[in-house]
Amino acid sequence: MKLVLPALARPLLEARLPAGHDIAWVGTVDEAVAAIADADIAWVDLPPQGLTEQAVSAAPQLKWLFTAIAGLDSLDLRALAAQGTIVTNGTGINAIAVAEYAVMGMLAAAKRYDEVVRAADRHDWPTNAPGRVELYETKALIVGMGAIGALIAERLAAFGVGVTGVTRSGRDGTLTADQWQARIGDFDWVILAAPSTDATKAMIGKDQLAAMKSSAWLVNIARGEMVEQDALIAALTARRIAGAFLDTVHPEPLPADHPLWTAPNVLHSMHLSGRSQTKMFVRAATLFIDNLEAYLAGRPMKNVVDLDAGY
User: Fold this and answer.
1) Which CATH number characterizes residue 119's domain?
2) What's 311's DSSP letter?
3) How many domains, in total, are found in the chain?
């Protein structure tokens, strides 16, 4: 059996791999494309872009694709399903870091800590706090109660925030995909934590922004394509909503002259949430080894992606 694995993970994997397999360690896209053509198993998350879709598309007999990344919107999932490839993703690997970033963004928005930092940079000493919102007794809508959304909810509960979740199935008292938009005006925080699929693209547009409270903030730690950015810029410029904390935008990187940079009351964090930790590769390596052992033994694996649903 041939495995194609990232050279960066070699120190974490090599001693834990079973003997008797052909291992190709790759560090570039070209190396991955060349090695994967006859591979059975592959993990091709390579710097700087992460999951290398060029390599995946060059693997016609791949039996199992592992990635430490949760979002798979860069892949042709239909093609993978047609050739019978099992895909497992990295759901949960970065969940703690991303959840902490979401809460940090909400606190920064509530207290307008961005303005506090700018005052300190100017050596000013303001007598009034620029942000006076308390998280306590506010209401948050979390669109997507998966690994990240559940951790955000858990952390917000400690601040006394009332949380309502959205799931595809409506499990555990959450709202379903056809229910939450009618309720969006009830919430002080609208948090996007859903997987990127055709169904979630542009889920926040002119109508949704118009229905939000004028004092509400939009928090996006999912994917930039979930928000119609022209509509968001218009809503922010008209002060239709209070502001937006955006870890993700579209495109990325955001061009220097893009109007979203200068739209009022936007806090940008440049898709750094998942990178704000040191354990990603360690957790990914452990997940890969656990799943490899399960795969070879014919046991169920963790984080198997529904290729029809996209997550």
Assistant:
1) 3.40.50.720
2) -
3) 2
